[in-house]
Write a structure and sequence with these properties.
alpha+beta; Fructose-1,6-Bisphosphatase, Chain A, domain 1; 5-stranded mixed sheet; globular
Length: 272
Amino acid sequence: MNEDYQARLDAAKDIARAAGELALGYFARLDTLDVRAKATQDHVSEADLEVETLVRARLAAAFPDDGVVGEEHADVAGTSGFTWVIDPIDGTANFIRGIPAWCVAIACIHEDRTVVGVVHGPSNDEMFFAVADGRACVNGRPIRVAASTGLNDGSVGVGMNNRTTPAAVVRLIEQLVGRGGIFFRNASGALMLAYVAAGRLIGYTEPHMNAWDCLAGQLLVAQAGGRVEDQSATAMVQNGGRVIVATPAIFDELVAISDTAYSGVPARTDNR
């Protein structure tokens, strides 16, 4: 295994755990949390800001030449060829309402592909992680995608946000249910992607995600034996994009119904 990748994976796990502990402290005192709206159903809290500050500081100390892209603070250019992509709290809408479905997501890209991915769910004390050319694990135990052979054999995660056309989501759900499927949504895309990798969901689809929400989870799915739509990691950082992952047996069908459902969805020109 690439030593640079392994070193960054080890650091990312430690940093994610520290970030999760800090976030849990805020989660325990939500009545005093400072929250502001960025857009409809899109919020940022002081917890998001402080957790990202912690992650950035730890990364800068460990890998000062690496670049950093995060949801809440300005990008930092690097010279090493490695760039970290972080979401301090994915599922902020859940977090600020006391729902324990949120996580810390940390990914690292190198040469246009994601090479490290960590999704840490502090509320359940679950650390999902993967490294390129290695395996995917949760709390140190190897994980694999489900053995499901059809859309009627498990639940599919469905993502949406304030950029998503409601009609597109309705079309997707109609087609999924029409094939005997069940849709699942917990308002944390990173967690749902991790659940696909762990075999809890059989797939996940969303017309547009930001890089910090999906890169870590996509690597988890790929290293757990699932299929992921081919994408440039660099392009995802710049513009975001559609995300579809699934078990090998249902991937093509999930792509087909997503193509139909999402037709006409306008492309994003920025990733903020």
